[in-house]
Automatic annotation (TrEMBL):
<dbReference type="GO" id="GO:0008556">
    <property type="term" value="F:P-type potassium transmembrane transporter activity"/>
</dbReference>
<comment type="subunit">
    <text>The system is composed of three essential subunits: KdpA, KdpB and KdpC.</text>
</comment>
<feature type="transmembrane region" description="Helical">
    <location>
        <begin position="368"/>
        <end position="390"/>
    </location>
</feature>
<keyword id="KW-1133">Transmembrane helix</keyword>
<comment type="function">
    <text>Part of the high-affinity ATP-driven potassium transport (or Kdp) system, which catalyzes the hydrolysis of ATP coupled with the electrogenic transport of potassium into the cytoplasm. This subunit binds the extracellular potassium ions and delivers the ions to the membrane domain of KdpB through an intramembrane tunnel.</text>
</comment>
<protein>
    <recommendedName>
        <fullName>Potassium-transporting ATPase potassium-binding subunit</fullName>
    </recommendedName>
</protein>
<feature type="transmembrane region" description="Helical">
    <location>
        <begin position="453"/>
        <end position="474"/>
    </location>
</feature>
<feature type="transmembrane region" description="Helical">
    <location>
        <begin position="481"/>
        <end position="505"/>
    </location>
</feature>
<feature type="transmembrane region" description="Helical">
    <location>
        <begin position="135"/>
        <end position="154"/>
    </location>
</feature>
<keyword id="KW-0813">Transport</keyword>
<feature type="transmembrane region" description="Helical">
    <location>
        <begin position="175"/>
        <end position="193"/>
    </location>
</feature>
<keyword id="KW-0633">Potassium transport</keyword>
<keyword id="KW-1003">Cell membrane</keyword>
<dbReference type="Pfam" id="PF03814">
    <property type="entry name" value="KdpA"/>
</dbReference>
<dbReference type="GO" id="GO:0005886">
    <property type="term" value="C:plasma membrane"/>
</dbReference>
<comment type="similarity">
    <text>Belongs to the KdpA family.</text>
</comment>
<keyword id="KW-0812">Transmembrane</keyword>
Length: 561
């Protein structure tokens, strides 16, 4: 009962916080005066002046997409250079050398795509400059890229005919200045008060009570952890991520971080309703996402609190921090894989098979149960297009959404975007399961070994970043292959979704009639969930049956795994 009350309070605070944040964000993206304008508007205008940006100039979908791709390519080049040259650069008190070319490629792609997959241990392989000027910078701008794209797509679905999708440079700048930066400052200060380090001093060398020498890593952690969670980035300052006591010191820090993971993704549901001038549309999508979230959390909670039947009664505490326990670990696992966050406060490799199944499905459906900041929402709009199309087929009418017809072009683009998930996961996983060099990364034989492969490629293509801990992520084959998978998962959805938005905004909106299929009620919510299940979860059912489902079957048969 205590766990249930905690979950309900979490949901209430998250929903209320998201609703209030959306009220601020609607003014931010409409370029209207907001609470932070007196302080930040001069900074914003200064950026535009230096960069030669005309804030009132709207872009078509091609211009918007080219701006996204060009900016991200430049960010990749800068981060790759920092990682390769960090041994020669300042702010390196521990004398850490350069990253290898393949690992630098993987890391640069990972942070530019908002994946934050980590094939390295941050405290021993990255300088403070790399952490701050490299990774933390990308934590802000990769998150802002997803938010900007989501706002552009929403404009395509809700804006007036031929009004354009907005300006990427303005949307990204305003996302950083008015949303990500203020929230990060607040959360960073809270985390420092909870005991998280924020210092430029090198590692501490201490003598233990037994007289041994111990090296304790530290650094500017709090500032990176704040944006890591708020931007659904997930990349940890320390190797064991949010299970590390310096990265997640207390239950209070744990709860603030768990809220931060989903705060902005939740707010996008309500922002959509405001931009559509029909709050019911946003609540409908929020309801669909929430129902899937609760279902996943229920399965993980029951699995982890019930424990391993072969070991007797009691929760499954393998791979978990005692200070968080099974329930808070379950909540974090569901939140971090429902969003494309990927941070962990417990090792998912040690979760029960059905818990691992839920985390896999969360990623394989495209991270649309709230998902990444912005990315989860435009991913869900992909399923909305498909759901409306199916509804039209069932009732024999031309499918419409928010007064615009969904036609062959939009459905084709949606299918192309969706296919990037099974293409990257199943093809990438199949190659990884057969090539000897790739198999070196797999720790366990049998179904669990297959789950490790599935998890790695689901995480990469879904831009999540978490992993089963036994996976050998630093093998050159995997650093390269997973880097390519991350690129596919990010841009093979962004570009088609912008194209769909561009196609829709060129159409005249029609008023609703008695025959219009309502997209704000329980029937639509149910249809949307079913569409996600059919196109998302069932696509991967055969391979899941050979991995976590087979593992669970063996467990209940008393065979172990």
């Amino acid at each position: 009962m205590t766990d249930l009350i905690g979950y309900i309070l979490y949901a209430a605070v998250l929903t209320g916080g998201g609703y209030l944040l959306a009220a601020h964000m609607i003014r931010v993206y409409a370029e209207e005066r907001n609470l932070l304008s007196p302080l930040l508007a001069p900074v914003e205008k200064g950026f535009y002046s230096l960069a030669g940006i005309r804030s009132g100039a709207s872009q078509g979908w091609r211009g918007y997409a080219m701006a996204v791709l060009g900016f991200n390519l430049a960010g990749f080049g800068l981060l790759y250079a920092i990682l390769r040259l960090q041994g020669l650069l300042p702010l390196n008190p521990d004398g850490i050398g350069a990253m290898s070319p393949d690992l630098a490629f993987n890391t640069a792609v990972s942070f530019v795509t908002n994946t934050n997959w980590q094939a390295y241990s941050g405290e021993v392989q990255l300088s403070y400059l790399s952490q701050m000027a490299g990774l933390t910078l990308q934590n802000f701008v990769s998150a802002a890229t997803g938010m900007a794209v989501a706002v552009a797509v929403i404009r395509g679905f809700t804006g007036t005919k031929d009004s354009g999708l907005g300006n990427f440079w303005c949307d990204m700048t305003r996302s950083v200045l008015y949303v990500l930066l203020p929230l990060s400052v607040i959360l960073g200060l809270i985390l420092i008060l909870q005991g998280m380090p924020q210092t430029l001093l090198g590692a501490a060398h201490v003598t233990t009570l037994e007289g041994a020498d111990q090296v304790i890593a530290r650094g500017p952690a709090a500032s990176q952890i704040a944006i890591k969670q708020l931007g659904t980035n997930g990349g940890g300052f320390f190797g064991v991520n949010s299970a590390h006591p310096f990265e997640n010191p207390t239950i209070v820090s744990n709860m603030f971080q768990t809220l931060a993971i989903l705060l902005i993704p939740v707010s996008f549901c309500f922002l959509f309703g405001r931009m559509a001038k029909d709050g019911r549309q946003g609540w409908a999508i929020f309801a669909a996402m929430s129902a899937m979230f609760v279902l996943g959390l229920t399965v993980i909670h029951l699995g982890e609190t019930g424990g391993n039947p072969l070991l007797g009664a009691g929760p499954n505490m393998e791979g978990k921090e005692v200070r968080f326990g099974a329930a808070l670990s379950a909540l974090w696992a569901e939140a971090t894989t429902a969003a494309s966050n990927g941070s962990v406060n417990a090792m998912h490799d040690s979760f029960m098979p059905l818990s691992g199944l839920v985390t896999l499905v969360n990623m394989q459906i495209g991270e649309v149960i709230f998902g990444g900041v912005g990315a989860g929402f435009y991913g869900m709009l992909l399923y909305v297009v498909l759901a409306v199309f199916l509804a039209g087929l069932m009732v024999g009418r031309s499918p419409e959404y928010l007064g615009r017809k969904i036609e062959g072009r939009e459905v084709t683009l949606a299918i192309l975007a969706f296919l990037s998930m099974p293409l990257g996961i199943l093809v990438g996983g199949a190659v990884s399961a057969t090539v000897p060099m790739a198999l070196q990364s797999v720790q366990d034989a049998g179904p669990h070994g297959l789950s490790e492969i599935l998890y790695a490629y689901s995480s990469a293509v879904g831009n999540n970043g978490s992993a089963f801990a036994g996976w050998g992520a630093a093998e050159p084959w995997q650093t390269t292959a997973l880097g390519l998978a991350m690129l596919l998962g990010r841009y093979a959805i962004i570009v088609p979704m912008l194209a769909i938005a561009g196609s829709l905004i060129a159409k005249q909106q029609s008023p609703s009639t008695a025959g219009t299929f309502p997209t704000h009620g329980p029937l639509f919510v149910t249809l949307l969930i079913v569409t996600v299940a059919i196109f998302g979860a069932l696509t991967f059912f055969p391979v899941l049956a050979l991995g976590p489902i087979a593992e669970h079957t063996a467990l209940i048969a008393g065979q172990g795994y």
